Amino acid sequence: MDLAKACLARAYLPYAYLEAANLRHVDLSQAGLTGANLHRSNLTEANLTSANLTEADLRQTILNGTYLTKANLSGADLSEAFLPYANLVGANLHDARLRGADLNHANLQGANLTGIDLRRANLTGANLVGADLTGATLLGTNLTGVIYDSTTKGLNP
Description:
Elements: no helix or strand
């Protein structure tokens, strides 16, 4: 399915089946995508600002440079997803699964990462200033060059 550059802002698409879809540069800001299947889709540089992706399937999805500012990804599965340079400022990833995900240089400032599963994930150079990682699973996670400060909770690199 090719929806590249489509404007779907504020669309209500709960449980939508968008597996392996081309969604490059699509505008899904404030969209309702609860439980959506986006497995193996390409969302490079898409706008998902304030989108609701609760319990969505984003396994092996390409989110390179994607805007996920203030998005709700609680309980979502982003295992082996590709998120380098993604903007997740203020995003809610409570209890999300990101096993083996690539978050190289992602911006996670102020994000809720409580209970997140980041086993074997790559967070090289990621910005975690003000993020809350309380209860996060970080076994085998690459934290090389991670940016954090005293406002970052639950991180002991």
